[in-house]
């Protein structure tokens, strides 16, 4: 024996060789007789799956671990007697630091049972299509069409009593488990009658027929028939069973998708909530999401879109670090998709092998799949319509429940009537003119602080208003033009400013964005030190 290898003597005789799997894709946890010689057989056991799999998701139910450590004793019932079996260590296994590779060991025996990626993907495909779990955790009953397809070909089989793996032989118990998964009583009765009529039962199977039927009724399992036909009638499985399973799966997934779309209520895009795409990325990286619906609900808090004049207009809530506040940014579809592609989703309960081998799921895929949850009729600065996106979501400070206005009421009424045009937007601009240091900027700074993210408190270049790109004026209810350095008497400048001051709508030109028409909510104050403003 090589001292670098870990050996153990099996409880039933034979030799255990412990090795490192090194990503070798074994078909299952228990691989019996992968090679048969005149003097010994080779079995390979590994913990490929730690948990039982239901509908491609790990459950909390542990599968039996087929790997037994050296110097271990196990209890087993044999001939109605409990016996203790020991796995003895042969060499100094506790001090071995490196195990030999399983691949190298099997290569020496010219054995290759490593599943190709294609076969592994097919195995996952079969697991998805072969079994559907309802929301309450129960197995969904087989529909009549598929049940009849199974019954028609469950014939000419040799059925044994001892429950060996299905890829080796068909047992009576597994047959009854599959039959009792059929909800249609007449189809189930036909299948039960066919067991003895069209199949060959071993002597022990015929003897224990009643007991097997009773046990099978308590453990219905639809997927057993899929396995039986896959191993016993592969051509029929590929041509008939698999397409039918896929069809059933797609119908169920479509029904589930419709139900989700009908029941999911989108969250409001709230600028007072700090939640952004950054937080979604953190939750996804930490594996906090359990399903797609949770991701959709989080995305509805930050993204929305509506039909623009030439293409869809996308809006996303983001953090504006300069002012330490949240704002709404307009972006192209491609830009939004690039951001969402960076959010790789790894569900909390997803099967380990799926995490390693499946194509990464991103927030972009989920956004496109549930696009109807993000669409709006349009966008306004202020709207009570829940189907119209409302940009304005409150001033910088909350209004007090009770305010003593008596001493200020006359002044407030005067301002409202003569300057603020009552409850309507003023169609005139205010000019604050006076010498330096009298508090003009202090006055406008107070207003700017009240209007929070919806202001431009210090515009010094008129080109930001009248130039080719003017997105600075969109969704701004207050702007201060402070000592404009290039404001001249050109008619074109005056015309544009008149339009901004008085018109209810405005055309927005933004770099790398389609042109769009926005609601004009701008109120302007000019500040000037010179005698002639």
UniProtKB/TrEMBL annotation:
Domain of life of the source: Eukaryota
Residue intervals passing through the bilayer: none
The NrS-1 polymerase-like helicase domain, residue ranges: 432-530
Protein's UniProt name: NrS-1 polymerase-like helicase domain-containing protein
